[in-house]
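Hi D.,

Good news: the full-assembly prediction came through. Inputs first.
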Amino acid sequence: MKRIENFKSIIDKYEVVFFDAFGVIKTYQGLVPGIEDTFAYLEATKKEYYIVTNDASRSPVQLAESYHRAGLTAITPDRVISSGMLTKEYLDLKVDDGIVAYLGTEDSAHYIDSSGLHTLPVSQINITNLDKVNALIFLDDEGFDWCDDLNKTVNILRKRTIPVIVANTDHAYPRSVSDVAIAIGGIASMVENIVGKQFIRFGKPDSQMFMFAYDMIRNYRPISKKEIVMVGDTLQTDILGGNKFGLDTVLVLSGNTLPNDAEARITATGIVPTYICDNAVVKTGGFDF
Amino acid sequence: MKRIENFKSIIDKYEVVFFDAFGVIKTYQGLVPGIEDTFAYLEATKKEYYIVTNDASRSPVQLAESYHRAGLTAITPDRVISSGMLTKEYLDLKVDDGIVAYLGTEDSAHYIDSSGLHTLPVSQINITNLDKVNALIFLDDEGFDWCDDLNKTVNILRKRTIPVIVANTDHAYPRSVSDVAIAIGGIASMVENIVGKQFIRFGKPDSQMFMFAYDMIRNYRPISKKEIVMVGDTLQTDILGGNKFGLDTVLVLSGNTLPNDAEARITATGIVPTYICDNAVVKTGGFDF
Amino acid sequence: MKRIENFKSIIDKYEVVFFDAFGVIKTYQGLVPGIEDTFAYLEATKKEYYIVTNDASRSPVQLAESYHRAGLTAITPDRVISSGMLTKEYLDLKVDDGIVAYLGTEDSAHYIDSSGLHTLPVSQINITNLDKVNALIFLDDEGFDWCDDLNKTVNILRKRTIPVIVANTDHAYPRSVSDVAIAIGGIASMVENIVGKQFIRFGKPDSQMFMFAYDMIRNYRPISKKEIVMVGDTLQTDILGGNKFGLDTVLVLSGNTLPNDAEARITATGIVPTYICDNAVVKTGGFDF
Amino acid sequence: MKRIENFKSIIDKYEVVFFDAFGVIKTYQGLVPGIEDTFAYLEATKKEYYIVTNDASRSPVQLAESYHRAGLTAITPDRVISSGMLTKEYLDLKVDDGIVAYLGTEDSAHYIDSSGLHTLPVSQINITNLDKVNALIFLDDEGFDWCDDLNKTVNILRKRTIPVIVANTDHAYPRSVSDVAIAIGGIASMVENIVGKQFIRFGKPDSQMFMFAYDMIRNYRPISKKEIVMVGDTLQTDILGGNKFGLDTVLVLSGNTLPNDAEARITATGIVPTYICDNAVVKTGGFDF
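Then the structure:
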């Protein structure tokens, strides 16, 4: 574990950089100041980069647009790899027909539309269509009535033996400088505990997220895991997952992990990043590239 | 473990009978048919009995009234011991002043009113009174907005280091012949997991419930644990808790545990009742007492 | 939560003091320096005191002797309340005949001998006596072959549906200034997880420990919970358990909880003692009593 | 979920078959009777097959030899994919120098030897070489003293912040018709719980096992997940892992899951195989191939 002053020296060592989104590129306040310089440097040096995010609430196109609106045009939809994409792949491969019930917004559901499947919010499941429900997806914490629809979800899962996908493993996410919100991953764990069944989770730290990104690169060029670095602000997801997949990892201190307790948390959890860096900003001050 | 045909033979062996409420005396359909005969027999033979319940949604007076409305007048408020009573004892002993924030109905909150404390629903906590919140109670799954108030609860607990009481340990409860509902104990576990703090739980199988009942009896007469039997329909709460406290236990098959999988569940969990009985109904057919 | 300079001022406020043993009265290095003054002050002021310990490896007589050898004669066997005593009470009340198999030393087993029961180490259970095993007890981490006897324990519990008692809930205990040892509570959790059955645990933070002590006092005098204070070095056992039972609590910093992270741990766990004190030593400097 | 009479009809539908080892190809009694016919049929029809096993106690060469000794020569080392191989890949990618301490047999350790690393049993770690320990691996339940070496492991991990690999996720494994043994995965969970750090686990149901096998095939030919089927006897590892990776799955009833409770377990866990088949034996009776 090495402390690094300038994130630039990390980029210089690798061919491909995977970035977590929240806490690394943006926060609830908008873009991390100076992060545009990082992407300019990546473009200038012809390095590849991907955003690897547990956010399943929107499609890659919508996620990219949110960066564009903030002024970061370097992030195009083909650079975004979300846990929602793994959910869609699962449905394509494993669920042939019938209804996919979901908890989340219409936006999140639109994205997982898969040929042959009928996507319906849990609120619209009733005695007439219950038998056709062949999968249930936890997509987002918004877009449904928590009390009514979670109670309905519990009862659907007591009556139907079907795969249940959790498209976002996070239990909470920051909403302002002082507040967090309960994420769909936390809600899903409560339901899983109550119905006693085993759900399928997509999202970091699970290897399948990294594999999906790794495969996308290998589709058009050879690459070794040694040439990829994962940059994240959370030990339990970004760093643990990256390490396990065999990647070098950078913990940045611009999000979940605060500068003054990074070392204590690393010691307590035993999750050790390859590098620690204040943030993912390339400091280009005065130098040409 | 002995199968018993007539619950009467169990009553005959003990001085005091503890009953769970739901699944033993009543179900979502009303009183268990014939249960009046059991209480008539208890009165006739001058045996003592108590209702030991995880239901913290109403006071003993209100719980007793609900039996009276159903036609069972033998259950008076002084016979009812609920996890809510332990919550109230905790507040009396351990919280001296300030606000007690709660999730639940007004009825449930009214009951825990303790001198010197101001009881307020979580929805009414804000930046002006946050500093005065000295305890937070999970009372009931009704009476609040799940999305708004659970998110608010998480943030209160991130800002205030205060005791959190879960007044009902159940994770789900039956609502109709085919459906269950998520109980406040399940919701509390989700919040506990997210904030990473340790909550205090009152309710079976915890010994403190049984101790509370045991103490009530000893206030006016000597009694040995050998002379008390606990009757319940749930292995993980009634039977485990009764066994651990040192009581003999009866599993009845009129609620949570179904006749055709009682033995499989006992073997799977290792929780062994002293007796198994179809229900807690005394069959008095043709005999005088 | 108040910081207290001199433990004496705490004693002055209560009628009865409960002490945890390890980390409060003694450490792996012997008695806490000056602790004799505390017991001299308790005797002088005619306050009652009890040692409430999760140590089930020896009987109260043997535990008291270990204090005498160290020079602390004030602790007599009737002052010692251990989780082993709850185990013995359970066997007396709930197991009528047959074999009680155990993991632990002969010393620890001798203590739980109960009339009508035959106590045998797990190593002596075989095909000829397996059917007579009516309970299994995890007593101590010493006195048995971990590999052979834990594998045998797993297979006994797959074949016999019997109560399993864990007489010490601790998962580890300190053995020197730098090292800890795995405790029987940690081993029991592994076995419980593998066999999928539910074990019965005695020991702090469970209320039954406190109730046992509380009942001992009430046998000869009336006492209110308000008049008892629990002194311990561990938030998760001593303080959580004392709080839940309704007692005031003192966290001392002479054991598990170190002075420089006491506040961080209290905030992280949400377990709040009534007082914090460097140690349980009464400073009597220059004053007569 | 379809019941299939003859495993042959499953092979006919796929290009590649992944087999779990224990409970599918062999049991504690030796090869599953008739399983040779399955591999003869696979060879005759030029289908590919791999053994995907959580057994990290021996190298692929040694595992293949054990099949040869039993008379099944079709399984060559290049067909065996074990969780030990993922452990070796991790060490190659992520640990550059120093000592790798391990719990297991010398055989299991020999296999993970990685250039630049010094592999030493935990029993040989002491104050002179502790600082050079850069990883610790749980390999096998044999080859070490459980009491001494597990206590030593706990203390190594309290002093060194290093990655810990669990090379076998199983908590128990069958050893005879009536007995099981505690597996290294169960032991590792106890240690993880005591030290409070997060270990890295390789083995089904984790996707990385399936990805490793999938990548091996893609090295020399294109293949879609739709063309691969996973055959296993355990819902929680083989079937859950296969499903999540996007493969079709076959539950066979020759091992962990018994014919008379397969459906109950599927309903209870919510883990649904694509097919159920008595065993993985191709019945070729009277037909030529």
